[in-house]
Amino acid sequence: IRITRMIKMMTSTNLTTRGRASSLPSSCTLSRRRLRRRASSSTSGPSPCRPFGEKQKFPISNRKTSSTTTKRRTTSVTTSALTSSSSVTLFLDAIFHTQSPGLEVASLVNSTVFLFGLPVLLKGLTGLATANAWFLGTAIFAAFGFRGYLLVCLYFILGSAVTKIKLEQKEREGTAEANSGRRNVGSVWGSGSAGVLCAALALAYPQYDSILRLGFVASFCSKLSDTTASEVGKAYGKTTYNSLPPFNSVPRGTEGAVSLEGTLAGVAASFVFAGVAALLGELNTATSSSSPLLAAAVCAFAAFVATTFESALGSLMQGRKGWEWLTNDVVNAIQIAIAAIVAIVLGAAL
User: Fold this and answer.
1) Peptide bond connecting 246 to the previous residue in cis, omega within 30 degrees of 0
2) Please, what sign has the CA dihedral across residues 185, 191, 196, 201?
3) In this predicted model, what pLDDT tens digit does every residue of 196-205 receive, in sequence order?
4) Nearest CA to 306 among 192, 226, 215, 186?
5) How far apart are CA 63 and CA 78, in angstroms?
């Protein structure tokens, strides 16, 4: 009886153990359940023990945050692109459309031009003259803008070109400019001092900008006319006369001498330069009548008056005893100042 009871107890114990074992989950199932509970209680992302091939599922809050961040980044990039584009547009507008861009824009643009055009500049100017020309160009760009700057560049190109006309012949005759036509510091200021003065006054007194532009254009008209008349006369002048009575015949290259060929070329050069200034719009409001053609005619007339005075002054005093300080550069500076004054007075009257 005891043995039978012991067998029955052992049998019931085994059955109970088997039932419990069959009802328990596997270790992998338990680990998955635990990991899922942890994932649901935190926002750290999906379970690393997801089955093979199952897509990773991010929490909704994380997806919203990621989308918002992306939109913010896109908006930031778009805003910065628009800002940079707007800055470039404003800078280009300041260069090409503003009448008086100011010294900052002028310094940047003029320095860039000098950097890339230095080999060309050094063909017509000495090194020190180039440095002084940078100051002249910056002042004129700041006051009279891109159009005024183009006129100065045009003067430099045309003035350098006429200086090279029959250069070898003029060198043989001893009438050529020193340094094979390369201008020095005195030539730079003898050509542009009146223009720089007009620019400085325009920056200081913007209400007189229009009439000072007229003086600026007239000063460069006069200097280009003088340079052209002198160089063409020395190259092609058949007969050269003293500019003062009794108008005796003198050798080519004599200070103050004039020739028919040189005079006609100088007048033509002044009209061409004034016409270009009118086409560029630099003389649109230079007179009370607001006629660019009338303003161009005023500049050409002022240039003729100034060059005639320069020839007479050179013939009368230049090179004479006691007037050694009256060099060619000083005479040129006086000449362009007279041209600017005559143009301003006539422009105010008209």
Assistant:
1) yes
2) positive
3) 999 999 999 9
4) 226
5) 23
pLDDT tens digits along 23-40: 444 445 555 566 566 655
Per mean pLDDT, which range of 89-103, 142-156, 204-218, 328-342 is the poorest? 89-103
Phi, psi of 282 (to 5 degrees): -75, -15
Provide the pLDDT for residue 44: 47
The whole-angstrom separation of Cα 42 and Cα 62 is 12
What are the Cα distances from residue 5, in Å, to 1, 11, 19, 42, 112? 6, 10, 21, 55, 113
Report residue 242: phi and psi, to 5°: -70, 140
CB 316 within 8 A of CB 325: no
What's the token pair of residue 259? 């020739």
Residue 45: band (very low, low, confident or very high) from pLDDT cuts 50, 70, 90: very low
Provide the token pair at 315.
């013939």
| Residue 285 DSSP one-character state | T
b/e sequence 148-165, b meaning 16+ C-beta within 10 Å: bbbbbebbbebbbebbbb
Alpha carbon distance 46, 48 (integer Å): 6
Q: In Å, what is the CA distance from 311 to each residue of 160, 226, 229, 258? A: 21, 9, 11, 7
The CA-based dihedral angle spanning residues 143, 147, 152, 158, taken in that order and rounded to the nearest 10 degrees: -170
Phi, psi of 257 (to 5 degrees): -80, 155
